[in-house]
Amino acid sequence: MSVRVLVADDQEIVRTGLAMILDAQPGIEVAGTAADGRRAVELARRLRPDVCLFDIRMPGVDGIEATRCLAGPGVADPLAVVVITTFDLDEYVYAALRAGARGFLLKNAGAEMLSQAVHAAAGGDALIAPSVTARLLGAFARSGPAASAARLVEPLTYREEEILAAVARGRTNSEIAGEMHISLSTVKTHVASLMAKLGARNRVEIAMWAYQTGRVTG
How far is CA 116 from the centre of its chain? Predict the structure, then answer.
């Protein structure tokens, strides 16, 4: 089954280019495109794509607000959203993560990383551009009060602590499995346990918790 993607960008040439790149990737199908956030939200709710790829800066409803509508706190059945932008600005990343985005990419990321981010989001992973991962997650954590970090439902095991650190550093499930010499299904089980213990909705929130609590630094 192909990963169905909805692309939203207000610039037609960029929107068309992203759609063409994604359609050319194995296992990815563009389900629809939108020129603004309002239309993107309408299409996403109707089409229920596997992944939404949203530009941050769009007229009217921007990518951040569109993400919040589809993946934010209180959304009963959230969609996977990856935000993409030309601008490597901290405030954009903070807003995207708070809104519930599963990934953050710069538009110069290239076809391979774009494909990786879409597949990662569809599979429950999160991919943030390597150039910004640790710096931005660390800064994001420091920008909020320490009290905002969720309290553990129960203590983490030693292996969960290891996987927590790996997730916080931007490793995918496959990379963690290879580095720790364990099966992919075992990694997924540990990640699911981490989400349950932290009350996290996705891997980005796991990573933010790791930075907020000082388990991972810079």
Answer: 11
